[in-house]
Write a structure and sequence with these properties.
The chain is elongated and about 70 Å long. It is of the alpha/beta class and about 300 residues long. It has helices at about 5-15, 30-40, 55-65, 75-80, 95-100, 120-130, 170-185, 195-220, 225-230, 235-240, 245-255, 260-280, 285-300, and strands at about 20-25, 45-50, 70, 85, 110, 135, 140, 160-165, 190. The longest helix has 27 residues, at about 195-220.
Length: about 300
């Protein structure tokens, strides 16, 4: 059986990398759990230790082979860790950074999987202090509406983008180390500034989630919602799939990237106003123009 080209390249790359002796993951759900499983599949990690808020979730992660053991002492686990991944909702990261700072080993690198970067970088400066150079921010552009350890997949990151947003204090070696870790998972790694990242993802990720949640919420408040949903088909299912995502996580993301998201929401409301006017005026040409350009751009994007 022939393997996909992306998987072959991923396996060849991983074979050239020195395995990471010890990884500590905070949050062993979809993002953190998939990171651990991907490193395992690539033979790129020795030991994985998990921390989290729920002992039940951690035990599930252990039983699923995501982690080798559950951590119970920060000093013991972080002092000799090679890599720490913060895979929690972004709202939890400031407090988490403050907790881990005193225990980080001199050579321990820290990265994250947060969907916003400006707030995470600010939290790192505020809470990691003189150890901020050890923190290399990242955002894996992968995931799904399901969460928890059971949702983790070893192939989640193959061919998917991961964006690094290094801080000025990061050494070239530290950035390369984190890049290599994500590449071992099969990811395609690029770099942006934290501001560029948040502006881009406000448009192509955060706004779509906001709109999906808003549509379902609108229907949920109607007296005839059961009737409406009984007739909903694939179009509604596709558009609203992401409204099944974690409310806590997306609450934090929306608030963390509020300014950029408000700008995008304003632009979108102007677009809706244009469509509303075209409908009111029975302006078929305008609607055709809007729909045709949208179809063309989406078609070009899906073929890339």
């Amino acid at each position: 059986m022939r393997l996909p080209v992306q998987l072959v390249a991923h396996c060849n790359f991983a074979m050239r990398q020195k395995p990471i002796a010890k990884v500590v993951i905070f949050g062993t759900g979809l993002i953190g759990g998939s990171f651990a499983l991907a490193l395992r599949r690539a033979n790129a990690v020795g030991e994985v230790v998990g921390f989290g808020r729920s002992s039940a979730t951690l035990e599930q992660a252990r039983q699923l082979g995501i982690i080798d053991r559950i951590g119970d002492d920060l000093a013991t686990e972080l002092g000799n860790a090679d890599l720490v991944l913060l895979a929690t909702p972004v709202g939890q990261m400031p407090e988490l950074m403050a907790r881990i700072k005193p225990h980080l080993g001199v050579h321990t690198r820290v990265t994250d999987g947060g969907s916003t970067k400006g707030d995470v970088v600010a939290a790192a400066y505020a809470n990691l202090g003189d150890k901020v150079a050890q923190f290399i921010p990242a955002h894996p552009i992968a995931g799904g509406e399901l969460s928890g350890a059971a949702a983790a997949k070893a192939d989640l990151y193959i061919g998917k983008k991961v964006v690094l947003t290094p801080v000025l204090e990061n050494s070239i070696e530290s950035v390369d180390y984190i890049r290599s870790a994500w590449q071992s998972c099969g990811a395609v790694v690029s770099e942006l500034s934290a501001q560029q990242h948040d502006e881009v993802f406000a448009a192509v990720s955060h706004l779509p989630h906001l709109l999906s949640f808003a549509l379902v919420h609108d229907l949920a408040q109607r007296d005839n919602r059961d009737q409406l949903l009984s007739f909903a088909a694939s179009g509604f299912r596709d558009f609203t799939r992401i409204a099944a995502s974690s409310p806590e996580m997306w609450r934090d993301i929306c608030l963390a990237n509020r300014d950029a998201l408000l700008d995008e929401l304003g632009s979108y409301m102007q677009e809706l106003a244009t469509i509303q006017t075209a409908l009111s005026d029975c302006d078929a040409d305008k609607l055709q123009e809007i729909f045709s350009l949208a179809r063309k751009v989406r078609g070009n994007w899906t073929q890339q």
